[in-house]
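can u pls check wat happens w/ zinc ion
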Amino acid sequence: MKEMTSTQRFEAALKHETPDMVPISYFTGIYQMHWMKDPLVWQDTVEYGRNGEYMARATSHFHKVVGGDTLYILSDVGEIVQGWGVRMKIADVPDIHMALGKFGVNEPGDWEKLDVLDPMIDGRMPTYLDAAIALDKEYKGSVPIGVDVPSTITTATHVAPMETVMIHMLTEQDALKKGLRTICTTVTDFLNACNKAGAFYSCYLTTRASKEITTMEQYEEFGVPYDLETFKKTPSMYHICHVCGVEPMFEIISEYAKKTKNCRGISWWDRGAQPNLKVAKEKYGDVLCLMAGVDHTNTLATGTPADVEKEVENACKTAMKGSGFILAGGCDINPKSPKENMEAMVKAGRKYGKY
Ligand SMILES: [Zn+2]
């Protein structure tokens, strides 16, 4: 088969058409800075989170050295919610992203006070746009640019403490829904702005669609309507739902793929969560593109390159048949992961992922 560009390969996998090779992706974020500068200092954390061109430089450099098929724009979870008054805090070590500090919503009445944000100026959303523009200028569509953007209900748990959102789901439903409406418009506008800046897809963080966090009924009520609206209103980009939890709601996410044209896949920790890759391929592999295969918490972080290769071989054998498979870790790369392991993942992906 004629060699495809990374974008053609990635899109073929999403559409269950046969690519030349299994596309390879990873959630690198600030971890990729180690390739440009080692050791990092705390100023790097801050700079990475607020300077899109710096972020793009790190992303591009990592791509050139390590390879793979995506340029993934990932920083901390404050990009949107800082626009609603959330304060960030810096981690004790410089290769960890900034974390949420003080929240913007605490009382039920605060949900109503949220205004729709403008992705061009509010929070640190312009950082992502700057990064996408810089990468698009350099790669001109040959490698798909992805953005890490939280869903509406996930964003709600970034603007308010998680426990507060869980309580408001039970006791302050009307107030919470007013907030979700504003958040949904903001998330949708942000995604469209990313798309216009050059993003081809999002890893859409449906991190609360996991059964140990919410019930299916709760997610149907507080997650699904907003997710579907966002997919519908962002027609010119693809979405892959990312779930960090241990019991991702495949039932709901596979329905997204049936009901929409652009929500095509799921990314999850197949080596630790339920279902594993084999079961997911059997039950949902015809409907959903599965983005998984490598254990980011164990193998990539503490294994040897030979362990990584073994896992990649196993993942390709399990899931590449019939397309609909992207080789990836299950979530953010552990900052202590040896460089050799990332290189081994890409090398093995090319070796075992040929169609
Ligand atoms: Zn995750």
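The pocket of zinc ion is lined by residues 242, 244, 331 (CB under 6 Å).
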